[in-house]
Amino acid sequence: MKKAPEKTIYLRDYTVPPFLIDKVDLQFVLEEKETYVTATLQITRNKASKTEEKDLHLNGDSLELVSVALNGHALNETQYQYSPSNLTIFDVPEKFSLNVKTKIKPEENTALSGLYKSSGNFCTQCEPHGFRRIMYYLDRPDVMAKFSTEIIADKKRYPILLSNGNMVESKDLSDGKHYVKWEDPFKKPCYLFALVAGDLEFIEDTFKTMKGRHVLLRIYVEKGNLDKSHHAMQALKKAMRWDEENYGREYDLDIYMIVAVSDFNMGAMENKGLNIFNTQYILAKPETASDFDYIHIESVIAHEYFHNWTGNRVTCRDWFQLSLKEGLTVFRDQSFTADTTSKTVARIDDVDHLRNFQFAEDAGPLRHPVRPDSYEEINNFYTATVYNKGAELIRMQRTILGNELFRLGMDFYFATFDGCAATIEDFVSSMEKASGISLQQFRLWYSEAGTPIVNIQDHYDEITNIYTLHVTQNIETTTEKKPLHIPIKIGLLKRDGKEIHHELLQLKEFSYDFHFKNINEKPTPSLLRDFSAPVKVVFDYSDAALQLLFKHDNNLFNRRDAGQRYALKVMLNLINNYQHKKPLSLPHDFLATFEYLLENMHEDKLMIAECLNLPSEKYIGEQMPIIDVDAIHHVREYVIKALALKLKNIFIRIYEKNNDLQSPYQFNLDAIGKRRLSSMCLFYLGRLDDPAIYKNIIMPQFETAISHNMTDTMASLRAITDSTFEGREKALNDFYEKWKDDALVVDKWLSTQATSIVKTTLKTVKELTKHPAFDIKNPNKVYSLINAFCFRNQVRFHDASGESYEFIKNIILEVDALNPQVASRIAKAFSDWKRFDNERKHLMQKVLQDILHHKNLSNDVHEMVSKSLYL
Ligand code: BES
Ligand code: ZN
Fold this sequence. Notes:
By secondary structure, the chain is α+β, with helices and mostly antiparallel strands. 41% of the residues lie in helices and 21% in strands. It contains 27 helices and 31 strands. Helix 6 crosses helix 7. The mean pLDDT is 97. The chain binds ligand BES and zinc ion (ZN). Ligand BES is lined by residues 127-128, 266-270, 300, 303-304, 307, 326, 330, 333, 382, 387.
């Protein structure tokens, strides 16, 4: 059956809910084939609603209605109407109780939204519209109710039965079944509902809150994974303490549970008191998880924990306000990571991510404001713009207000909107009220799409000693011709690298001259320090100026950024040469700067590693009018190899100094810094394609590390997989044989191969879709193989033959029939088709059209593809 196309939903059409639900009592009778859900809803008409509507309309999705009763009386067919997606009760009273029973089939739920099965256990995902796949309901976040949940299930197969809040009753029933009842004392929207039933193991700990309450902490995992859950528990306690110390936020229930499941569309979900996580963001031990995994686990656990206040206690009025919880919570988890790891490196990683993913999104047909005006499928709006640009908007408000006023603003926001469904406007006005600073002009950031370009020219007057920065702003895609309020942190450096001045400039005009007096020599400006606004700065830096900043800027973020600008400049020049068939050669000064970095910047190893990391192929493409994938790849590889050749001995020396294959893994900044630096050296050395280096350095590392250290193992396996080294196949096989029973390690094995630069990658990816390790129904497998290939292997995905495009098209259609959210995320790979040369453009356009003409396409993919084609 073809679904009617979803119509566009507009923010301007928002009206308050016509009915409110005060109390929800749920009962689940969990069975393998079919599950019966009974809900008793206490409903009242909303006095604030102006609607004349007499009928109650409840949302559903793929539901089978069993029975419905109002105030205890079964309704007859003339009193209601229903379909799988809607239940209407005619002419309801002011206040009533509604009892609805539905039947659902969790085993057939491959979309992983609503109630579904993962590794034999039941679990739920309700944000944003999964609850309506469980029960007819007013499925909108501004309807907040108190929930109780009764669960009945076979005790042997499902000994653990969980839901939100506190367990208030449990007992054994006849026929080997058992019963539990959970009660959540806090009002919540239904998207925060959760249920888990299964044969799980757990670890537990306690946390003493700032007011002295003891909270029980539990992490549930599938059998056999307990030894990988301890890092997650440490992370949780760290996050709880951090939120108390930095925001004064205390946890509010007596128990906090996390369940890790293998089949999950996203990373994790903040359900009240019962977070559900993708195993990827819980399970870690040194031999299976890398430093990146350890760090990500901490940040995702923190993120979901922080939602308890920014998302749950204060929730969103409607889904257009998604960034109110997600942008703010990303900002909070970024601050947490910055505080608990390295401030500068954390900022570098966040900005790299924004520039690599959000900038491209903001420049293409899928661009949208942080607070979108309309959507067809809200699942398509969990984007880098809503999340990461949204976090930047919060950060800018903190920069404008200063830390203390920002904290007052947060306190005010929590105090005013606790228990409410709020808007982004409520947040911004809280900041204004608490600080006395107007953010009137700042608000525009929330409604404008596109990355602003800030053009800067400088002028130095030797007679008056006045230095001037002439700054202009524009957004190419602006709808309103109004300037944005842009905070620009700058510094001015003398020729010897010493700073003479620093300041926060606040640009509020389209064009403005900032003057600096008493400047005795023409300075070098360090612009947009710490990336103080999500903009592109255009300034015509000389190579010498970039070298000076790279060596001396006291703002470490900008120091590395100068290196990146310099590398970008060099590579764009080389790309131009390559396109004009001119010979390539690495500028001597560039080489010298790299050498300087390796020889002199010993203070911070993580920083050196970040500086050694060249701008990605994707980011280089972003800077070009037409993305020339082959030229980009050729030149970037040329530069890597040239650096490796010239600096080989230094790389070997630093590698040997920092590499430690014997000591047991330690998760601390010093150890991580050493590993990241030695991995970087290994990366460059690997690019020499020198058999001796493989034999004497890379293979020994692989063979030693594989038993106890995944960070070092992956660094070597990545080098091997990118090479034509004769031991390549064997290394990949050995790795697989050792780890084939560990799903998360197999994911690494898949993505390493999918992102390999070797020419046979597409063939390998195709073969891997047939491999027993692959499972098209499991999102982690699809993301590790397919999305890694599409999004992290520009040169192979965009192979001129168009073969990858055809292959991915078929995968998208196959996945769409099972799981539209996952399919839609793959389909995004074609959204920037207009940025490529004519041949690739047409090939991609054809793929998009084929997808669009496919019958039974989901709304998710339909919106993604039609917008890509026609906007
Ligand atoms: N609320 C989201 C999870 C979610 C997203 C549910 C989309 C349904 C649809 C959660 O808080 C979240 O943002 N998770 C992120 C990870 C986070 C660290 C940014 C995710 O799952 O990717
Ligand atoms: Zn979130």
